[in-house]
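Note on ligand handling. Small-molecule inputs were canonicalized before submission; formal charges were left as drawn, and no protonation-state enumeration was performed. Where a ligand contained multiple stereocentres, the stereochemistry in the source SMILES was retained. For indole-3-glycerol phosphate, this procedure yielded the string shown in the input block below.
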Amino acid sequence: MLEQLLAGSLEDARARRELAPIETVEAEALTRAPALDVLEALAPTDHIRVIAEVKRASPSRGDLAEIAEPQALAAKYEAGGASVVSVLTEERKFKGSLADLESVRKAVSIPVLRKDFIGDEYQILEARAAGADLVLLIVAALPQDRLVQLHDFARELGMTPLVEAHSADEVARAVDLGSQLIGVNARDLRTFELDRDLFGRVADQIPAGVIRVAESAVLDVADVEHYRAAGADAVLVGEALVTNDPIATLKSYLSV
Ligand SMILES: O=P(O)(O)OC[C@@H](O)[C@@H](O)c1c[nH]c2ccccc12
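Structure output:
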């Protein structure tokens, strides 16, 4: 499944590239206001931080919410105390788009993450041109040499890569990159199985000073407490925020 998702995102990016060549998108990326300081926004503090996701659907959970106005949802996330907004831009299974990211960027002043299956520099330039401050890089999707190149490329644009791992080996590869922001996804993107305890098993491998994000499978405040107790600095939450009142839900998490 992960291979198909990556192939689909790359194919969609190639089609966009026919219309907007890399030079055009690069010029847009370079004339944007500088990317925001993500490590500052997510710096460990006395409560858990939340990366709140604009998520309409997923291959494992199907349709979650309509979200006609992603900018309105993102504004609620900011009002509720989220530290970062994640916008799924994958079109085929997650029903997102770069247009969603652009409208969210205009509506909030906190950092914005482009959440997609990224395997090409062009997608990173598009993200910056649309105003993203972070990009997701999924360790399982890429050989290490490409991961190094894409990680460097994003950093040269002033962006912060969120490097996603789903096993002890993948965490080791993320650490090898010199990543300052590592996410452990409870969901296996190949089988869609959930393992909420994975974060706790691998958290100690992440060096002090690196921000630790627990991704997926937060359905209520007890799950946030579970991740916090295991050492998470931040949680990345989609489904629970798009299917409940976002402000009230965020406020309950921020008490953890
Ligand atoms: O809806 P949830 O279970 O709260 O999960 C959010 C987020 O972690 C999930 O959307 C995600 C994590 N890593 C990804 C990689 C690609 C697509 C989606 C994801």
